[in-house]
Amino acid sequence: MSLRKEQSIHEEKQEDLSKNTLQTNGDAGKKSRVVCRVCNRMFRDPKILPCLHTFCADCVRQLEPFSVHGLNGERLSPEDELHGRSSVTVMCPECDSEVDLPTSGVDGLSTDHLALDEVFAETLLIENSVLCDLCSDSNAGKRCEVCCVNLCEFCSQAHRRQKRTSSHSIQSLQELKSQGRLTRPVLCSLHPGQELRLFCEPCDLTVCLECAATFHRDHHCSPAREVISRHGDRIKDLVVRSLRPRLSRLEESLRRVDISQETLQTRTDTLAGEIRAFARGYASAVEAHCCSLLRSLEDVRLQRRNQLHLQKAQLQQALSDVRSGVDFAERLLTCGSDAEILSAKGVTLRRLMKLVESGYEPHPTTVAHDSASSICFLPHESAGQVEGFPVVGVVHAKAVDPSKCTIQGEGVERGHEGQRGEFTLVCRDSSGEQMGRGGDPVLVSIVHKERKGCSVETAVVDHSDGSYDVSYIPVEPGLYSVWVCVKAQHVQGSPFVLTVKRKFRRHRGIFHCCSFCSGGGAKEARCGCPGTMPGGFQGCGHGHKGHPGKSHWSCCGSVVEASECILHNLGAVSTRGHLRTVEL
Q1: Per-residue pLDDT tens for 547-559?
Q2: Could you please report the per-residue DSSP string of 199-264?
């Protein structure tokens, strides 16, 4: 039987073994080291990619090129493409890395002999009763390590007699199965039957004896067993000193990431439960608050309805009384004689006066209107806590009573020309309590009493708690009338009288106890006070009649140090004399 036929039989046998391996091991078989991750069959001519992942040579050839470029990475020229001087980049099916294939193509990749050993071992383990691959008539007891075929005793002897296969190594299947690790010699692809025993240093390549004698005869070739320690130690050094510690660190980091993911999931699940519990509790609190608000609103409605019933009854009684009085008076005046009118005058006038003075007559703007308009819902106002949750939204039922509103601050009565004056309006309800909200229509008007058309512009600031700051700047002195109205009604004390003084006048004299002394003993020095020195001196002295008894200003006689100069109010005193005193 020819070698080509033996190889064909071997490939068919390998395909059957691949199917049996996948059927036996299931998904684990797909991850086995004997199965290609692309075709999911046992390796056939396994090749190692630069990323150290192994695939069948045919599977690598079927990978779609990721890019094609020149040998040095530059853009491929037509000449390079014509002569095949190009490098093909493919994507590894295992790790998605971009790897460059050699210029010679897939055949230039290194063969994974370890994978072949694994395939060989897997084949032996799967086959309990192995038939001869050549005759298929007898059970195989031996195996050719070169051809990778199982042989019966007859075919084994024939295999040794053939010239091409006479040097092949044939071993017993039983011995191979009993070995812990099965290996086969690595043969040369150019010289069949020749084992790769030498290593060419310049070419960095394992060669056989014939290759060393022909293609590498001028190169330094050493036995593989002599250089394996040097090159193997380099690989071992990289693995032990660099990659193994890094591998441990990566595994530990990955473990921590897994733990963090589990912790994250646990934490989020816990928080999700807390959020749902909070949402249920908060929804319950909101529902309870809603019911409370509706009850409060119903209570206000009943209260206002009763007030309206009472107000209606009072109005009906007042209307009946006024109508009966008017009807009687008009009938008396229309139909009665003079004597009749005069005889009934007394009782008629007393009744009419009583109706005028003590009759019930509310303000037109407060009849029924405030009962509805004063009720409002404030959705953003804090309502405290319900079942431990803060809630907002209150039903406000207070109605402002202008007669109970008050003014705070001296700015409503006193002011100065050109200076800002301020006072505060506090709106209150009928019980005198301050309104807890703003928004009431407030009108403030400041008009000069003597000069027509002279008014002061005002600014009102609503603090949304029932208080309003009012500010103004008068431009002229004098008396002003201040109207403060809420809902078109005057508040308590309105209108007010505002006295605006001239600009604050500072003293021009000297604050002292004696103008004679402060004037340097000049007898003509005269003080603003009406006192005189004994003996006729114009400057006032100590303790005499008319002396203030304490220090005072020489310009106007004021006894208050931090005060306004009242020089303009002392008409009997000459301004010129006072100015002379200042000079002294």
Answers
A1: 777 788 877 778 8
A2: EETTTTEEE-HHHHHTTTTTS-EEEHHHHHHHHHHHHHHIIIIIIHHHHHHHHHHHHHHHHHHHHH
